Amino acid sequence: MAVSADAAVMELLDSSNYVDWSVWVKTYLLAQDLWDVVEQDEEEEEADDKFKAWREKNATALHTIQISCGREASSLIRNTSSAKRAWDTLAENFKPKPGYYNDFHQCQPLFDAVWSGDWDEAKQFLTLHPNAIRTRLPSTKETALHMATQLEHEHIVEELMQVMSEEDLEITDNDGWTALALAASRGNIKMVECMI
Q: Where, in residue numbers, are the ANK repeats (predicted)?
C-alpha cells in the first residue's frame, strides 16, 4: 500500500514486513523524541504539567504508529489510547516468532547469495534480517547453513557459525539431517571442526 512522501515509513505495516517496519517507526519516534512513551508505562493521571506533556507525546507517538499501519494492523489497535500498548500489540501479532521467519520469499536474497558463494551479500542481508538465519527452504527445509554445507562453501560455513546459536545448529532438513551430519557425510573435516 502506498504512503505519502511525508510519512514516517516507506510501507504500511502488514503481515510480511514487521521487522523493517518496526525499525523505521522506532527510528522516526526516536528522532522526534517520542520513543520514551513507547518504552515506559503510562503516567498517572494528574492535572500537572508532567502528565500533560506525557499525554501530548503519547498522542503524537500513537498517531504515528496508527498512520503507519495497514488495515489488518490498524484494526488491532483501533481502540487503544496508549502508544506503548499499541506497539506491544503489534509486536505480539506481527513480530516473527523465534525459529521462523515471516516469509521465505523475503529471504530469497540470502539463499541466492549462499548459492553463489557471496558472503558479503549474505552478511548484508543477515545484518538487516538476523532472524533469517533460521529460515528454511520450503521444499527441503534446509537452512542457509545446510545449503553452504551441501555446496561446500567452507568460507560461508565459517562465517555463519559466527552468527548462529547452538539451537540453530540443531535444525534438521526434510531427511532429518543437521548441517553437521551433512558435513560429516561429505567427509569435510574442516566444516565438521568448524561446527563442533
A: 175-196
Residue whose entry in the numeric block shows the C-alpha cell 526434510:
174
How many angstroms separate the CA atoms of 179 and 191, rounded? 9
Q: Tell me the domain boundaries of the chain.
A: 18-94, 104-195
User: Which cell numbers in the block locate residue 192?
Assistant: 565438521
Measure CA 107 to chain center.
Answer: 11
Nearest one of 158, 153, 160 to 122, comparing CA atoms? 160
Q: What is the CATH number of domain 104-195?
A: 1.25.40.20
pLDDT profile of the chain (196 residues), mean per 10: 64 85 93 92 72 92 94 93 94 72 70 93 89 83 91 93 88 90 89 87
- Other beta carbons within 10 angstroms of residue 110's beta carbon come to 23
> 181, 103, 170: which is closest to 135 by C-alpha?
103
pLDDT for the residue 55: 92
pTM for the model stands at 0.50
Taken in order 177, 179, 182, 184, is the CA torsion positive or negative? negative
Look at residues 184, 110, 188 and name the one whose alpha carbon lies nearest to residue 147: 110
